[in-house]
Amino acid sequence: MSTAIYLEHYLDSLDGLPKELERKFNEMRELDSCSQELNVEIDKLAEDYLINVKGLNKQDKKNHLLNIQNCFSKSKKFSDEKVQLALQTYELVDRHIRRLDADLARFESELKVQQLKFATQEHVTKSTNNSNNTKPGKKKNDKDSSDNECGKKRKKRAQEHNIATSNSLPSSAPLTMLPLVPTNQHSDVLDMPVDPNEPTYCTCHQVSYGEMIGCDNPDCPIEWFHFGCVGLSTKPKGKWYCSRCTAERKKNLKH
């Protein structure tokens, strides 16, 4: 069943609902009006009774109380009828809601079946197309595999030829070795990102890296130096002074 048919059937069932609801609401309004009038009458009877209770005899008191009680009974009856109408109205609307939910559930179930059927047909169609596309390509794959086999055989023959050629060379043939190119470690270190808050050293005013040596002059303003910056490759024996401190020491010795 299509969506339009479900919707048409549901709208047909709603044709009489607005009028039915209007009728029940009018009845509840009338009952409520009657109940309000009785409440006003009850208040008036109760006020008269309280004012005249001292001058009434026992029978008059009883009649006044019975009259008030009857008004309360009528008001309760109107209220009960109004509650029953409200429940009937709720049940009427709820019945249409349940029907709509049932129709929606059936529609969703049918829609899922149709989607599953469509997906199955699409899968079968794709499988058929893939099988049709695979068959004509079989010869091409066979050709590619044969080409690969021929290539492997040619490569194997070339390797055997190279081995035979290398074995024919004299054992004393010199082998040429490429010299190793040293890397510039100092340049690599300088290219590294530096923390701006990290202290700097040496005459190059760079951060600490690699091997460093400290000047033995306690008053040296620089204190630490990189091996490469002061021309050292290994740590010297004994005390070591930087060029600046060495010049100052020589100057002091002359004096």
Question: Tell me about the biggest sheet?
Answer: 2 strands, antiparallel
Distance N terminus to C terminus?
118 Å
What is the domain total for the residues?
2
Strand content: under 5%
Shape: elongated
Binding site for Zn(2+) 2: 215, 220, 242, 245
Subcellular location: Nucleus
Biased composition (Basic and acidic residues): 139-151
Function: Component of an histone acetyltransferase complex.
Question: What would your notes on this structure say?
Answer:
- The structure is a single chain.
- By secondary structure, the protein is mainly alpha-helical.
- It has two domains: 3-134; 189-254, 2-Layer Sandwich (Herpes Virus-1), CATH 3.30.40.10.
- It has six helices and two strands.
- It has a two-stranded antiparallel sheet with strand order 1-2.
- Helix 1 (3-13) runs antiparallel to helix 3 and helix 2 runs antiparallel to helix 3 (58-134).
- The chain is elongated and about 145 Å long.
- Mean pLDDT is 76; it is low at 135-141 and 161-189.
- Keywords: Chromatin regulator, Metal-binding, Nucleus, Zinc, Zinc-finger.
- It holds the Pfam family ING.
- Zn(2+) 2 binds at residues 215, 220, 242, 245.
- Belongs to the ING family.
- One of its GO terms (biological process) is chromatin organization.
